[in-house]
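Anyone up for a design puzzle?
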């Protein structure tokens, strides 16, 4: 029998799960939400113009900005939520047991909170904003009248929503749902 790789699900010093860990946790939580029929929200978050800020002010400034956004995210997430980093400096947040009506207010709190962050570069305050792509599922089984699809489709829907937010100029959230109602 082949040995399974061991994954350490302890949060790093930044408080984030690694890309591998957050994907594994999301896949498991998505499966549970269908099995036990509870709602789940997935957000992909991108800091607008992060690479431009990096090019202008260096990696230390970029890292400070990411740390500030992560700190803000930790104030709006619960102990049962999962916050992880992606390979491309995006963030993924999994909100199990989150009703549909909480999705938009949650994204608005994040957008407003980041707009209020003070980021200094070359002695001036720079405006910071986010683009958020979110997908919500009510947690029903596919055989029960809701075609929720598999995890890859669910995650791809969040990616598509994020791309729409970025393409529209950033500083916004696009929230989608697997429910047809």
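Challenge accepted. My sequence:
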């Amino acid at each position: 029998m082949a040995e399974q790789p061991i994954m350490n699900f302890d949060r790093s010093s930044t408080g984030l799960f690694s890309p591998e860990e957050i994907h594994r946790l999301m896949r498991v939580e998505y499966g549970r939400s269908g099995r036990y029929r509870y709602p789940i929200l997935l957000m992909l978050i991108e800091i607008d113009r992060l690479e431009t800020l990096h090019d202008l002010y260096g990696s230390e400034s970029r890292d400070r900005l990411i740390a500030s956004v992560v700190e803000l995210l930790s104030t709006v997430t619960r102990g049962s939520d999962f916050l992880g980093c992606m390979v491309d400096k995006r963030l993924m947040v999994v909100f199990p047991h989150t009703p549909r009506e909480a999705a938009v207010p949650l994204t608005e709190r994040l957008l407003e909170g980041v707009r209020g962050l003070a980021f200094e570069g070359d002695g001036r305050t720079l405006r910071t904003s986010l683009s958020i792509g979110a997908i919500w599922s009510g947690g029903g089984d596919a055989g029960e009248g809701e075609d929720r699809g598999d995890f890859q489709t669910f995650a791809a829907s969040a990616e598509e929503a994020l791309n729409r937010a970025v393409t529209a100029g950033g500083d916004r959230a696009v929230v989608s749902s697997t429910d047809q109602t």
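A detail worth pointing out: Helices lie at 19-36, 50-57, 59-76, 100-115, 151-167.
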